[in-house]
User: Fold these one by one.
Assistant:
Number 1:
Amino acid sequence: MEVFYAPPARRPQLDYSRFVLISRGMESVSIHRPKWLPKGQLAALREAQREAAREWMDRVAVHKQARDTRAKWPTRDTLQKFTKGRYKLHSQTIQMIVQQFLANVEATTERRRNDPASRQWLRYPHREKTFFPLYWPAQAVSYDRCASHLILPMGRGRKSLVFRVALDFEPGAVKLVWKDGYELHIVRGDVVQAEASPGEHRACVDLGEIHQAAVATDTGAALVICGRGMRSHKRLLSKQLGALARKRARCKRGSRRWKKLQRARRKRSLLARRRIRDLRHKGTRKVIDFCVQQKVGTLFIGDPRGVRTLKAGRHHNQRISRWEVGQDMDYLRHKAERASIACSIGNERRTSSRCPQCGHRHRPKGRDWQCKACGFVGHRDVVGAANMHQNAFGVRVTFPARVTYRRAGPMRAARGLNSPAPSLPARRSSPDTGLREGVAPPSPQLLGTSPPQGRASDPRRDAGLPVRRQTLPSAA
Ligand SMILES: [Zn+2]
């Protein structure tokens, strides 16, 4: 669960100076949201998070003092020495916070060393925190399978936190975070890794905003995952949050209506976040499945984050700022590792502006790449992915002859998702009369002489009067 600086597994001949990836290790995490927590427990959780923040701020202060006085930076042992018995938390939780702090410091140092420009703005942990997530390593966590109770200790003499969650796996480390409501991030150790690499082929991925990913292999195949679903969820969310913000601007801060709007805002953004995360996982899963099917053993992911800093007008800036490309790279790396595909990330500069046939350069317009020199036409993102082979592996591949298009996933849940789909009746050659087999359809009859069965009593019929179906007296 710890955040650390992850250097690429293999370094191709590329400029890596701009490369930094902070990620949650290579663990599969299962996210649980307790639907309802009693007031007392909520208060306990808040207090524990405050306590964790106090510890964090103390570590920040110690480290800052060392930096300011140019003294030797504190090591893990010195940092941990000051924590004993000072916080109302489990000893392992306290240690995890120290670990997290050191990991952040290390990542910052690494980034500042590799990328001198980042020294202008990248600072060591300094921000004032009121709340901090709580961590428990695997050995501190216990799970009562009979009662479905996840037990998280809070230290000797204090009540443990107990959550009711049904798990079908043995829980590993647990992180308790607030994301518009409490969430339990539980590491699962039951995810198996493929033993052998799928094959010897190579593939490159071009990540994008309109198309989540475009993959080109050296087997002459290509896959494009459409990202428009995620895009539209995000646009809708932006609009709805805007509308809520306008309403909120007219309320008094802290009033009942203000709180009500805050709840609405939280609910709305949670829903969108879950939907987008789902689509993102489904899209990257399709990329890896495609690679396995094409027997790809080495995958190169182009890092497009250079384009994020460009200013492109307020509409495009909103789209780009909501584009979570770091997540895509993380998910791809994670899923590739599970499939035993060697994965590396590197610069993708100038790959999408070059013609894969004649090398002519120009900035593409629209979704198709049309070469002005040789007349080549191909999918813009596939062009980027195919050209990347030259950068990453030093080999030119032929432009894929066929491109498979896929959506990341369905935009809307099917109706009755949780119930099995109704089985369709077997096809029959006879017309479907809606009657059981062997029952002849009724012969046509004159309306009025024999009204349909099961009707509620009709005063006109009871009186023996002809019933006119079209103009039934409504107020007879
Ligand atoms: Zn050309």
Number 2:
Amino acid sequence: MTEQTTPPPRPRADGWAFLREAVRDLRTTGAVAPSSRALAQALTAPVRARAPHPIDVLEAGAGTGAVTRVLLPQLPRGARLDVVEANPRFAAGLRDLVAAQHCEDRVTVHRAYVEELATDRRYDVIVSGLPLTNFTPAQVDRIMARYLELLHPGGTLTWFAYLGTRRARALFATRAELHRHAAAERALATHLRSGRTASRTVWANLPPARVWQLHPTAR
Ligand SMILES: C[S@@+](CC[C@H](N)C(=O)[O-])C[C@H]1O[C@@H](n2cnc3c(N)ncnc32)[C@H](O)[C@@H]1O
């Protein structure tokens, strides 16, 4: 893995696979297209920042592997990656991706909801692709609590949120949906107070997105 510096190209079929799953269940899939290379690079910055240490990394909500493909070549020697994906069809594709990259010895794909992931492992970096503000406030609480539990002290959680979704929702969503979205954003904001945050905008993605990092304060 460490010898390879360029991520493997994304198969064209991934875009269709993603769209198909979005049509089945837009709320859980959270997008209609995979993340761009630029967004994946921004999300994985905390992994590069820790090289060459042999860190433990968790990727949650990997979809068709747009971020995984960028992540794999960045893993330092001796690092381990757990990939968690709730959708069984995406999880099967991720297993194929890992097999094609010959990295089964350090990468494990779990078909699971990340908030229910059964593991004693703790991670230096968690890369989350979950559409957090699509969930109910109770789900946001459960997922964020599990992320904080799974992080090593001094670890980094990174995730993204699309820009402009509040405005789009204001045009099309029902009153109940607007209420749920606002409550989910408040729940997320509460968890952000558990540490130091930083964010940057990635314009080269459809739609553009804000990438966040949370460095929880010592518990
Ligand atoms: C917005 S997509 C991101 C996919 C990919 N990381 C990317 O950036 O292209 C969100 C993914 O999270 C998965 N997902 C949603 N809820 C999940 C959960 N609770 N645990 C694990 N995966 C989840 C969905 O199936 C979907 O593949």
